[in-house]
Amino acid sequence: MSSLMIKALAFAAALIVATLVVVKQMNVNLDDPINQLTLLGAVAIAVLTFGVSAKYVNQMKTDKAGGELAEENWDGIGEYKNELPGGWAYAFLGTLIWTVWYFLWGYPLNAYSQIGEYNEEVKAYQAKYEEKHTNPDDATLLQMGKSIFLVQCAPCHGITGDGMNGKAHDFTARMSKEQVLDVINNGQNQLGYPMGAMPGGMAAGADAEAIAEYVAGGMKGEAPAAFAACVACHGPDGKGNNGMAPDIAGYDDALIHNTLTNGKKGMIGKMPSFKTMITPVQEKALTVYLQSLVQ
Known about the structure:
Layout: H1 3-25, H2 33-62, E1 69-74, E2 77-80, H3 86-106, H4 114-132, H5 138-157, H6 177-186, H7 205-216, H8 228-234, H9 240-243, H10 253-262, E3 264-265, E4 270-271, H11 280-293
Antiparallel strand pairs: 1-2, 3-4
């Protein structure tokens, strides 16, 4: 064994001892098989890293390249037709075997996990929260909705819901002209409404511009003739025919529910689903608050 290898293994041993000291000071429970596997993995990584590094550093000092060159080269740099090192192949095979063992026996899916415990605690808290706020009044809903918005929505939509200069949807109005045109041109089929998908190209040119201006302007005044293409699904008032299609005049309960459940991808970006992140009462409170933001 070369002196370089001895030094590398000695360094690995020192690192392992230091790790054990730190683990002991942290009062880590070594009776837990997961902690045991983690510690064993750290020891193996330390030994393999320093041992293999020393081996190849020493080999680079003495070995000379040889063998048959492949025909391909990159900027004059060729590659020898050498066999894959056995250690690499065995390490890859060992990793596959360990993965199957870990998945099926080492840490099966039905075993305890911190994530599982956290999820159970969240479910218990949500059930308690729902029971406590079974019938909140409007003032309570508004305050609850604001708190939920500041935590879950404000990072993208801004603390006032203005969308932070176009970085996300602006809740102080229903839709901008650009957003309406984007839906007219590309269609929409993400929110799971009974009416189904809206195809793109329902209007074009001056008609699309007129519809976009009318919807973005709050649907005030006389509707343009081209808006007739929208009435069949969204209704003459734009409120979605009692939840059959999206409300394009405001934020009704169905629109908020479907968006939170399914997420939404638009011209600005993609909003993920919040289906598992808020309770029905929280959704109701958030809906009340979002409706209060419209100017």
